[in-house]
C-alpha cells in the first residue's frame, strides 16, 4: 500500500468517563506505530462535557462534532470522512488496545482484495474469565445467521466472516464504495455485519488478526444510554433486516420464512414480547430494505452458499483448534518459569492450538497471557499441607473440571509447582485427557513427586541434570528434556537501548557489571557484592547493578544486601534496580553479566544474557554447564568463591577482546540450540504425540 498510515476513529456519545479511562492507551498505540497516524473522535451530540474534556486534554486530536445524534453508523461515517490515511481503524470508546496492536494489521492491506481486518477483542465484563468475541465464522442455521468463534471455526488463512464495528481496520476507499455504514440500522447493531457481508458478496474479503488485541469493556456506552430491553429489541430487529437486505439464495430465504413463525412462538411462550415486537418493527422498514436490496444486487459476485461454505463448523476448509489448558500458581511474574510459559503461549502455533490460562488473580501473568491470545480464568490453588482444606481441594478440582468441559480442553499443561500440578492432574484424569508436568527446578524427590510422576502422561524438565530427580523412572519415554529458549529478536532490538544507563546517570564509558534474579540467599547476591569489593580495588570506576527484588513482605534479604554494601564501603558503586520487566533493556545496559547462584537449575537469565551477546560468568551449578563451556562461550567459577568470581570479572574488564569473543560465541550457541521457536516446536511435538494416542479424542 502506497503512503501507508492509520486514522483511528472513535465515536463518542456521552462517554467522557470512558474517554478518560481508555483514550490514553489509544494515544500510546498511535504514538508507537512505525507509520503515520492520527486519532479522530466523533462526538455524537454529547451533553456530559466530553467535548470540553477533549479540547482541554487532547488538543492534537482531530475532533468532529455532530449537532444531533445520528446513531453509531452515522458517527463512524463522519469520522471516516475526516480521515487522512488510507487505513481507518474503528474503535469503540470502551476498548483498551495493546500498545502494539496496529503493527500486525499493516501487512494485510498489501492484498488488493482485502476490505477489512478483524481485531481480536476480548470482553472484560466477567470477573471470572475473559471471553473472546465470536463471529470469526458463521453458519446459516434455523433460518438465521449464527456466529462461530475462533475455537469452532478458524481457517488456515485466517479469514473472518465479519469484523466488529468497534474493533476493525478498513480500506477507506472500499468503505465508500460500499456506501459506508447503512443508517437503516439506527441507532446501533448489525451495521458492521451488513457492511462486511456486502464486501464478501462483491468479491472482497475480511481477515482476522489474533495478534492485534483489544480489551472490550462490553456495552459500557450503550447500557448507559439505553435500557437492556431496548438494546435487545434493536438487536433482534436488525437481525431480520440484515437477512432481508442481503440474503438472495432461494433455499436460505425459504428456511428463514419457515423458521420465523417458530421463533416468534418461542419468544411469545417465554414472555419476551419485546422481541416479538422487533419483528413487526422490522416489517415497517421493509420498503427501505427492498430498495437497498435492489441497489446492491447488481454488485453481487459471490453467492450466499459460497460465502457460508468458507466458514463451516467442523467441516472441510476449517481448522478445529485444540484447546490447551495452562496452569500457573503465581499471579506475578516471579522468575524464569513464568517468563518461559509466556514465551510458549506467545509462540504457540495459533492455527492448531488455542491457549487457555489458569492463574490465581488478575495480575501480571493474566495481563501478559491475554496479550498472547490466551483466554484467562482465575482459580487460586489451596495449600495441600492443611488437612482442613479438603472442601477447598474439592472445589478447586470442580472448578478446573468446569473449565475443561466449558472450553473443550484437549490437554492440560501444568507450569506450576506441586499444588497446581496435583489439582491439574486429578482434573485431567477425571476428564480423561492427557496431563503434562513441566518442571523448572531441581531438588530432592518427595513422596508426592513419586505419586504425581506416575499419574502424568509426560514430564518435561529443563536440563539433563533434572532427570536425576526422577531416578525411579529410569529412561522412561515419559521423561523429556527440553531446554528453555529465548526470543533473539527482542534482544537484537534492545541492544542499543541506553534508557537504564540514563535513568541512573551512568556514562557510556563506565563499565557495568550486573546480576539479575530474585533477591534470595540461594541466588548469591552477597557473593556478588563481596566480589565487587575486590574488583573495585583494581577498577574503581566500575558500576555494579543488582536487578530483582525480595518477594517477601518484610524485604529482609534486600535489607541485608543493602547493609552489606554499606559495610563493604561500596554503596556509591552498587545500584539496586528493583524488579524490571524489560530484561532486554536491562541487559543492554550491562557490559558483563554475572550469575552468582548457590543453587540454580537451568537459569533462563543466562540464556537471555547470551542472547544479548554479553560475556557471562556463572557459578558451576545445576544445568549451567549444559549451557556454558568454560573458556569457550563463558566462564564457570566455583560456588561461594568471591575471589575467583572477582578474578574472572577483572579478566573480562582487562581483556575486552576476550570478553567480546566469548560473548559472540555464547550468542551463536543460543542461536543454534536455545531459541524459543525451537523449544516451542518440541513442546508441540509432545502435544501431537499425546493427542494422537488411542483414547484421546481430538
Radius of gyration computed on alpha carbons = 29 Å
CATH homology superfamily name of the largest domain: Spore Coat Polysaccharide Biosynthesis Protein SpsA, Chain A
Strand percentage: 15-25%
| DSSP, total strands | 24
Tell me the span between the first and last alpha carbons. 41 Å
Please give the count of helices: 26
Low-confidence stretches at least 5 residues in length (pLDDT < 50)? 126-130, 314-318
Task: Describe the protein in words.
- The strands form four sheets. Strands 1, 2, 3, 4, 5, 6, 7, 10 and 11 form a nine-stranded mixed beta sheet that branches.
- The protein is of the alpha/beta class and 698 residues long.
- The protein is 41% helix and 19% strand.
- Mean pLDDT is 89; it is low at 126-130 and 314-318.
- The protein has three domains: 5-309, Spore Coat Polysaccharide Biosynthesis Protein SpsA, Chain A (Alpha-Beta Complex), CATH 3.90.550; 322-485 and 679-691, 3-Layer(aba) Sandwich (Rossmann fold), CATH 3.40.50.2000; 496-674, Glycogen Phosphorylase B (Rossmann fold).
- Strand 23, helix 23 and strand 24 (635-637) form a beta-alpha-beta unit.
